[in-house]
Specification:
single chain, Ubiquitin-like (UB roll), five-stranded mixed β-sheet, elongated, binds FE2/S2 (inorganic) cluster
């Protein structure tokens, strides 16, 4: 009991000591700032401004998107998804979460699927990007697009471009050998409408040579 009382007292003393130390640290910092000559403060401020401005300075780079070369001049902080949608008007690629969690923004970079919301456009300099707009050959849809239509692989359609891009990659990666494997490798693509079983049917159909009509 006595021991408990003592440790509570010790605790209070320690807390009081901590807040005294915090108070002293803060007042020393404030006094130091007050005593810093305005010229030095101004210089530090402009250095910071320059650094921040650097993030907004546009950078020139090139990308191949759906077989077409693009010379770009955008801020380095622009994601590939925002470049496609906001700068180039390629709105087929959808923004669901913008955090790498829904797969709606899936595109191919050099043939591999990625979430375009998770990469900066400038990081893909010189690479080949394929979006949903680049799949069809004129009016002739890609077999995966045809299969999604014939199997009713969508309802509202918002997730569909990402699902189709992932589905094509899944087959190319060799991850379409069974329904279970497909469900696993398509699990990064979320469908709020719950069209999953029809999506799987469409992919299996294409894997087996369907989706031609
Ligand atoms: Fe990119 Fe959701 S928008 S994963
Ligand atoms: Fe509506 Fe997938 S079809 S979210």
């Amino acid at each position: 009991m006595e021991k408990e009382k003592l440790s509570a007292k010790e605790n209070n003393e320690r807390k009081a000591g901590d807040s005294r130390r915090d108070f002293l640290k803060q007042s020393t910092l404030l006094s130091a700032l007050a005593l810093t000559p305005p010229t030095i403060l101004k210089a530090a401020e402009s250095q910071l401004d320059e650094k921040v401005a650097g993030y907004f300075e546009k950078a020139a780079f090139s990308l191949d998107i759906n077989g077409k070369p693009y010379q770009l001049n955008v801020e380095p902080r622009v994601t590939l998804l925002d470049l496609l949608r906001e700068h180039l008007g390629l709105t087929g690629t959808k923004k669901g979460c913008d955090h790498g969690q829904c797969g709606a923004c899936t595109v191919h970079v050099n043939g591999k699927r990625i979430n375009s919301c998770l990469t900066l456009a400038i990081m893909q300099e010189g690479k080949k990007i394929t979006t949903i707009e680049g799949l069809a050959n004129g009016d002739d849809l890609h077999p995966m697009q045809k299969a999604f239509i014939s199997h009713d692989g969508f309802q509202c359609g918002y997730c569909t471009p990402g699902q189709i891009m992932s589905a094509i990659a899944c087959i190319d990666e060799g991850h379409a050998n069974s329904e279970t494997e497909l469900r696993e490798y398509m699990s990064g693509n979320i469908c709020r409408c719950g069209s999953y079983s029809h999506i799987i049917d469409a992919i299996i159909d294409v894997k087996n040579g369907g989706g031609k009509k």
